[in-house]
Fold Acetyl-CoA carboxylase carboxyltransferase component.
Amino acid sequence: MSNTAQLSARERILSLLDDNSFVEIGALVTKRSTDFNLQQKEIPADGVITGYGVIDGNLVYVYSQDSSSLNGTIGEMHAKKITHIYDLALKVGAPVIGLVDCAGLRLQEATDALNAFGEIYLKQSLASGVLPQITGIFGHSGGGVSVSASLSDFTFMTKQANLFVSSPNALDGNYTAKLDTSKAEFQANAGVVDFVGEDDASVLAQIRTLITILPSNNEDDASYEECTDDLNRVVPSLGIDLKDTAVALREISDDRFFVEVKADYAKEMVTGFIRLNGMTVGAVANRTEILDSNFKATEKFDSLLTSAGCYKAARFVSICDAFNIPVLTFTNITGFKATVEEEKSIAIASAKLTYTFANATVPKVNVIVGKAYGSPYVTMNSKHIGADLVFAWEGTEIGMMDSKAAAEIIYGDEIKNSKEALAVINEKAALYQELQSSPEAAAKRGYVDSIISPDTTRKHLIYAYEMLFTKRDSRPSKKHGTI
């Protein structure tokens, strides 16, 4: 057992699955190579325990690497056990969960070990978008193992574990004491890890929760749980002055259920799962504040679209679309973040997010909860790129830009020659707001379907997704997009 682990490889599986449900496969499989005196070494189960079981009644396939068996290194037969699990999962349509504690390639098997990595990568690639793939990092995960983790849909990590492509000491100008790039905090801030837990038990509990949210495969019906919450419950705390949309999403969800994904990365963009009338819904929301448990702002952001926020949202929406999970957006955006660094990537990043929203065929609902200006508003799941329904809260703004700024541009000469420039600006800004920037103006043009009171958001969304439940959306025949 790894000195950073709290549970053995088998204990992790038994803690993850429902009691007495684990069935092991390939328990007697071991290495075939005899090079470098391997024939004299006992490697129980060739360093990985594989099998299947259930989580809250849901079938899952699982493998757990055993660091006490040659450090859990991946060799020929080790990989064959994992790929066999994938083959079975693809046949029956069930998620695959990998519990990782691995020192990497088995050096004694050299090219066979490289082939082993490739076989695992291939199975993960074939299963992508077909089966939910979840990886939990409990010990070491370096080099090619970290690539395997990133091929998963969701990655979990304990605070004691290590995840890296190149070790901290191998990075130019860096060393572990200066910055431990292998730790969970760094990887979560970089967006590599979706969830971080204090210890093994915490991560395993989070994985169990996620399994109950997700469908078993891409052809499964949406994931449901019986709703005990009032479908018509109003939420008086909602309003355009609520800047932490994570709080808003929690408030509208059944029994305030909310699982935030990549919570430590690109915090100005919230992604996570809620439930509405028992149905799992993937939510994406712009955020300008983070509130603590006392509803005090701990961090503030501009209402701007960033490259990191786009990448975060695009990946999440892509996963939702692959597994037929409806998508909800809360839009409050006024522009693109304007820095030299952002200029290097923001066009590509926003293009990816635009494409992902436009390409998604699941039910898509957008709620404008603040300001919705310019191209970033279009990108955020607007009616213009295919949202099925768009709601706007009372008092929101929708348009090209701030009404005052627009008035100054349109009536520049008139304002310049006016003795009462400020009064003219205000008059023209009010006119522009009424004609072009109000939710009523957008609704008259068909870009907003309904203007709603914020406290009624929950019931409007429940009715919307019930109506869209049987949505079918055909697209031009193609192999895949290129964005």
In short: The CA atoms of residues 156 and 481 lie 29 Å apart. The longest strand covers residues 133-142.
